Amino acid sequence: MMKNYFFTILFFFLLGHVNAQKVTINGNIKEEGSGESLIGANIYDKISQKGAVANQFGFYSYTTEKDSVDLYFSFVGYQTKRFQLAPKSDTVINVFLIPDGVLEEVVVSAESMDKVQEITRMSSINVPIKQIKELPALMGEVDVFKVLQLLPGVQSGTEGASGLYVRGGGPDQNLILLDGVPVYNASHLFGFFSVFNADAINNVELIKGGFPSRYGGRLSSVIDITMKEGNMQEVKGEGSIGLIASKITVEGPIKKDKTSFILSARRTYLDILARPIIKAATNGNESVGYYFYDLNGKVNHKVNDKNRIYFSVYSGDDKAYARYNDFYVNNNERTDYQEEFGLKWGNFISALRWNNVINSRLFSNYTFTYSRYQFDLFNEYKEKITGPSGSQSNLYSERYFSGIRDWAAKADFEYIPNPDHYIRFGTNVILHKFSPGVYASKNSQEANDLRLGASELNSTEYSFYAEDDINISSRFKANLGLHYSGFLTDGQNYNSLQPRIAARYLLNESTSIKASFVTMAQFIHLLTNAGLGLPTDLWVPATPNIGPQKAMQAAIGAVKNFKGFELSAEAYYKTMDGLIEYRDGATYLNIDEDWQDKVAVGEGKSYGIELLAQRKIGRISGWLGYTWSNTERKFDEVNFGEWFPYKYDRRHDISLALTHEWKDNKDFSLVWVYGTGNAISLPTQRYEGPEMSRWGGNYRPEIQYYESRNNFRNPAYHRLDLSFSWWKTKRWGERKWTLGIYNVYNRMNPFFMDLSYDRNGNRKIIQYSLFPVIPSFSYGFKF
After folding, report:
1. Torsional class of 563: left (φ above 0), alpha (ψ -120 to 50), beta (otherwise)
2. What are the tens digits of pLDDT across the range 560-574?
């Protein structure tokens, strides 16, 4: 069967090469003024009723046999441009679209060209950056992931957290890409914010299923985030000052129309605000703080019309710490000491890309990347002893650290022989270096340092892919592809051949039905201690003893474009194998044990129905989404080997996100969410154990009996957020004020549940909540 599938792919590839003499129109589609690439912009030929789409770098190619063309170039929120010409040979047309999101005549033109029902891929959602910035935000801090959590099929995990649980998967099963580079930990503030600064982002796409063959290495989703390229015409900037953080972004030309840059920075100042209060309360002896920061940078250089080079960098860290310093005198000696303990984690990502237009129909992109994620738990004690005979300094330190480093190279090619074929193929290789938990201590008075824990692991991951988006008929279109990947680790070589199929059939001009079937493989695991996305989670590779994760997902749905609304309904079924989690009682702190001896291996399944009504343009925009789903897990060594609900299994999820630009300089937005409670484990019986002695007395310990894993449900979660913004144009640019309220009606949602006793000694369930009603403000500016 697999062999026949391969030859079917090969047949369509060869078919794409057999062409009569044709004329190709190609070029780039960008934003007027800034020169920013418009990813996914549409090209439509009214004469042939065929078209094309711009790729991730704004490049498009359209081939025709007609004597003349009537081309419409469109993108959501931009004015449509029209070109009528009769090309005699291959022609280059670079198109610049003017932003204009509310004019009704533009809305009509754009809607006629942007037909979601004609796209082959399903389970994919693109959220405009403008909507992301306008929706209410926790503590006024705009967060890409918080918005993605509002989409059908995406769970948020716990209250306020930025983790994504997509169609029953875990956070480690999301392929999060920043300019094509995987991000291993995308959380700030212990999971409450993501690392992505919306001011530096050009495009965000979420893929939940029907994965194209060019993506691999994860099971549940792809979050493809592209940074801005930088303004080619003039220096521009924007920023904001908020309740807990401030940020600024500057972009502009290094050489006009040739080289551009963008720099963006964000930092919290919780530690700065709390520092004087803590010092005053401790006479200056103690200091406690927390902060995070992000730095984004990118340079975009146009070598010539056919070659372009990009270099992008991201760096971000979190640090929570406590410092204490004091002195004491003993036997004519004074000892000054300082102790600091805390934790620190962060990412560093860099990417060098070369775009090359090989010819009018063939586009290539070469990428070289280095990335690093590391977590440190540290305790350091310094002392200086001063006496009659002189002074000496001593240092004692303990450190637990883990992380992962990647060096990668990939080559991607796009070949567009005619409007009926869009062929992509390429290869990728990643060199992984894992540090899955190491304890180290140092004593300046001793010659040798102590080092315990797992040794570093080196692994190589490689892949090849090919896919073709084929117009089989005027109504039937399919994307056929293969993704082959391998993983070499500790003498073991794992291989995986993954067929990918997606198809759509047009019922009429506004309605289509879609279906997809994909298989996925994931060669790295995340050992998770808690649901908050804490940095103590460990990344580990597949080994000869612990195999890779695998998944299969099938989906079917319908899409309709109706008066500016995109309406969709999808049903999916997904199975997962090779899942791991800690055995009962095991944690990352058991440094004397190999992590492979701490885990259980199991399987999972998830199925559900997702409904979405979305409007991307106009004075009122947003979406209403609903999800019904069921997610279960099974481990031989857990829950007596029986299936049990996944912790983040929810039957019902509803999300409403609306933005209303009710005046030219004012907008109002709201978010309302509802979700049935997460699954939790609570004991159903308790009894006294055998008598034991402790501290000179006897007692009987209480033994709790759990009938099954995740046998209870938290109360339902629901919340309303509001935001109001108004702005004004100044001589120097624009200023904007935003007032927001998180959890307007002060719903005390469960953060976690626990068993306790009331005053009469009776057992009861206690709910702990995190966020009450929280007002926020921010001041934004553009220049």
Report:
1. left
2. 988 888 999 999 999
Q: How far lies 164's CA from each of 170, 186, 212, 624, 701, in Å?
A: 7, 10, 20, 19, 39
Cα–Cα distance between 561 and 614 in angstroms, integer? 10
Bridge partners of 343? 320, 377
The answer on pLDDT for 533 being more than 50 is no
Alpha-carbon distances, residue 290 vs 283, 287, 317, 318, 772 (angstroms): 20, 10, 11, 8, 21
Give exposure, 183-215, as e/b (b: 16+ Cβ within 10 Å).
bbbbbbbbbbbbbbbbbbbbbbbbbbbbbbbbb
Residues 239, 267 contacting (CB under 8 angstroms):
no
Which of 206-210, 220-224, 242-246, 262-266 comes out lowest in average pLDDT?
242-246
User: What whole-number distance in Å separates Cα of residue 138 and Cα of residue 725?
Assistant: 15
CATH superfamily of 124-678+714-782: TonB-dependent receptor, beta-barrel domain (2.40.170.20)
* Residue 545 burial (CB count, 10 A): 12
Hey, which residues does 346 pair with through a beta bridge?
A: 317, 374
Domain with CATH 2.60.40.1120 in the chain: 22-114
Structure tokens at 123: 């389970």
Q: How many CB atoms lie within 10 A of CB 14?
A: 9
| CATH class given for the domain over 22-114 | mainly beta
Of the pLDDT bands very low, low, confident and very high (cuts 50, 70, 90), residue 120 is confident
8 Å CB contact between 25 and 361: no
For 573, counting Cβ atoms within 10 Å of its Cβ (0-12 exposed, 13-18 middle, 19+ buried), the class is middle
- Phi, psi angles (nearest 5°) of residue 759: -65, -25
pLDDT at 531 over 50: no
CB distance 748 to 715 below 8 Å: no
Tens digit of each residue's pLDDT (9 = 90 or more) over 395-454: 888 888 888 999 999 999 999 999 999 999 999 999 999 887 777 777 777 766 666 666
| pLDDT higher than threshold 60 for residue 108 | no
- Phi/psi at 203 (5° precision): -150, 145
pLDDT one-digit tens code per residue, 692-751: 766 666 767 777 777 778 888 888 999 999 999 998 888 888 999 999 999 999 998 887
Q: Which region among 69-78, 98-107, 272-281 has the lowest average model confidence (pLDDT)?
A: 98-107
Question: Where do the H-state alpha helices sit in 669-758?
Answer: none
**Which residues belong to CATH 2.40.170.20 in the chain?**
124-678+714-782
